Structure formats: C-alpha cells, structure tokens
Amino acid sequence: MSVANYLLPGLSPVFHQSYIILFILMVIEGPIVNASASFAASLGYFNIFFIWIIAFFADLTGDIAYYFLGRIGDKYILQRCKRFFKIKSPMLHNVRKGLAKHSGKSIIVFKLTPLLAGPGLIIVGASRVPFKKYLLFTALTIFPITLFFSIGGYYLGIAFNSVAKYAGYASSTVAAIILLVIVLPYLFRIIIKNVLKAK
Predict the structure, then answer these.
(1) What is the 3-state composition of the chain as percent helix, strand, coil, each rounded to the nearest 5?
(2) What does the DSSP assignment read for 35-102?
(3) Are 42 and 161 in contact, with CB atoms under 8 Å apart?
(4) Which residues contact 5 (CB under 8 A, 6 or more apart)?
(5) Separation CA 157–CA 178 (nearest Å)
(6) What 8-state DSSP symbol labels residue 74?
(7) What is the mean pLDDT of each run of 10 residues along the chain (199 residues)?
(8) Are 156 and 180 contacting, i.e. CB atoms less than 8 angstroms apart?
(9) What one-character DSSP code corresponds to residue 118?
(10) Residue 149: how many CB atoms within 10 A of its CB?
(11) In CA terms, which of 8, 100, 102, 129 is 20 to 30 Å from 176?
(12) Torsion of CA 51, 52, 55, 61, to 10 degrees
C-alpha cells in the first residue's frame, strides 16, 4: 500500500493524477493554484499536506529552471533581459555587483518582488552564483510563501463551508473567488512590502 493510499483511503486514480496536474500548474502559476487547491483540500478533495509539499517543490522547480536558463545562456540571456525586461546596463551592473557581495539577500529580494522574480533569478544564474547557495536561499524563501498560500486557502475554504450554509453557495462562491484571486495575493504583497522595507 502506497503512502497516498494510506493517507487518502478510497481515492480514485483521477485524484492521484490531479496532483500531477496541480504540480504542473503550480510551476506555471504557484500562489493562486496553491491557494485554490488548499481551498479544495479544506472541502475534502485533497490532502492539505500534499498540496503544500507539491507547492513547495513546484516553486523550487521553476526557480531551478530560471537559474539554469541564466547559467547556460549567460551573456545571451543577459542581453535579452536588457531588451525584453527593459533592464538598463547600469542597473544590470549594480545588480551583478550586489550579487557578488550579498547574493543571499539579493536572491530573497528577487523572490519576494512581484514581476522581478523571473528575470532576477535568471540574472543570478548568469552571474554564476554557486548553485548550492542559490538552492538554499530560494528554498528558505519558498517555505514561508507556499505555507502562507496553503494556510490562507485552507482557512478560506473552512470559512466558505460555514458561510455557505447561511448565505447560499452562489454568493459564497463569488466571495471565495474574489478572496482567493484578489484579496489573498494583495495581502501577501502588503506583507512582503513591509518585510522588504524593514530590511
């Protein structure tokens, strides 16, 4: 008997496959899928522990891909970062200089800054920051991020289940979608903004 069968007795193969689908979706768009899957876990469709583990490794997989994209592409990737992400040469020079002195802090800032994570982590790879160090700091950053969206989505699901009994499923579903897609990510951005300011 597999661990999945033990923890999730009677779960059909369709649900086992859906964990793989969730992993792929989380690599592409982690936080929203993580929160939504955690929401579904609170309603009994998934195992919340598995959702968090999948979210963690999916995010880490995406970050490893960014790193090696930068590492393999090197100068070519840096030129494309300038062109497509509108990163100017002086700014790129300062980023690489900062990476040389404070690579750990730089990785954390890239990870926590919306829209900067992808190009930032590519630059980290192109700057040849040691992979073990990169992996450590990305993993340390991913841990609280994925935990936040897993817990947030899960407790929103519990609240939804309670409210739906009184307010009706239609209005509660609309409210849940707004909370999952808009409010939870917005709350996360506010928290991160305050964290970065504190640093």
Answers:
(1) 85, 0, 15
(2) HHHHHHHHTTSS-HHHHHHHHHHHHHHHHHHHHHHHHHHTHHHHHHHHHHS---HHHHHHHHHHHHHH
(3) yes
(4) 11
(5) 13
(6) T
(7) 39 63 90 90 89 95 91 68 56 61 80 80 85 92 93 88 71 74 81 69
(8) yes
(9) H
(10) 28
(11) 8
(12) -120
Per the structure block, which two tokens stand in for 126? 């192109």
For the chain, give the number of residues: 199
The tokens of 62 are what? 């995406």
Q: What is the reported pTM?
A: 0.77
Please name the residue that has the structure tokens 């947030």.
Answer: 152
The confidence score (pLDDT) of residue 2 equals 34
Q: Which two tokens stand for residue 167?
A: 């307010």
Structure tokens at 35: 């929160």
Tokens of 145: 């991020």
